[in-house]
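Predict structure. Input: tRNA N6-adenosine threonylcarbamoyltransferase, 350 residues.
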Amino acid sequence: MSRVILGIESSCDETGVGLVRLHGDGTVELLADEVASSVEQHARFGGVVPEVASRAHLEAMVPTAQRAFATAGLGLSDVDAIAVTAGPGLAGALLVGVSAAKAYAAALDVPLYGVNHLAGHIAVDTLQHGPLPEPCLALLVSGGHTQLLRVDDIAGGITELGSTVDDAAGEAYDKVARVLGLPYPGGPPIDAAARAGNPSAIAFPRGMTGPRDAKYDFSFSGLKTAVARWVENAERRGEEIPVDDVAASFQEAVADVLTAKAVRAAQEEGIGTLVISGGVAANSRLSALARERCAAAGIELRVPRPRLCTDNGAMIAALGAHVVAAGRKPSALDLSANPALPVEIVSIEA
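Output follows.
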C-alpha cells in the first residue's frame, strides 16, 4: 500500500510545496516539487528581510500548492499525511507554513508532522540516490547552517558532531560578494568568477584548523574579514582588484576546510558514506574537491542535484515519508513553529 505525503517548506525565502509517494517497500518517489522564491525582493537589501519573506510566503502558498498538485496529477483527497517545516528558521516565515499545513490537515482529516528543516536537507538525497546507508555522515552547508551530522536513522537518530561558531559558509559567500561588488545571493556569482581565477593567488586563512580548535567545528568570520582587509589594502594602494583571483582563493579556502573536516570525521567515525546537501552543496569547487578527497579515502560521496540542494518542499515531503514509515507519532494540531529547533529533534510528536 502506498501513501502520498504533502510537504510544505517556508523557513526562509523560498515557499516550497512537494508531493511524494511512500511505497510499501519504504522507497520514496518524487511526484512534484514546486518553489516560489522571494530572493529578488531581498536582493536590494543584501540579505533576507524577515517581514518581506513572511508576506511573500503568505501570497505564494496556495498558488504554489496548486501547481504542485497539477504537476503530480493529484487532488487534495489523495493526500494521506502532511509534513511541514516546524524549525529552525525565521519565526514569521515558519508560522505561515505551519498555519497552512494545520489548515490542510484539519480540512482533510489527515495526520500532521512538524519536521526539522535540517533533517530535510539530508532526507532529500533519498529522492535521487535511494535509501541512505546507516550510519552515514552529512555535511550540511547553506546560508544559515554549516554542520557535520552523524545520521544513524534519518527518522530520529541524528547527532551533531560539529557546527559553525560564527558565520555559516553561505553567509560568508554573501558578505564576500558584497565586498567584491557581486550580486546577492553571493554563492553563484562567486562560483562563476572563481572559474576564471587562480585559487592559489592569495593565501587566505583556514579557520578552526589549529591543534587547539574543536576538530569538527567551523569558522568563516575570520576568512570573510581577511578578504575584506585584503581588498581594502589593495584599494588603498590604488590597485585594481583581481575579482576572479580573490573569488577563487576565497572559495578554495572554504572548500578546503569543509571537505578536509568532513573526510576526517567520516574516517574517525568509521563511516563509509558522506552526503553533502544545502544550498552551498551546488558549488562547483566544493563538489569537485569532495569527490577528489572522498575517492582518495575510499568514501562514497552523495550530492543531490542542485535543485534538491536548495530549500524546497520535496525535501520536507521526503522526510515526512521517512517519519511516517518509521511509525513516529504525528504532531498535535496546536503545533507551533520553533525557530531554534535542534537537529536532534527530527519530528515533533504530540
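The mean pLDDT is 95.
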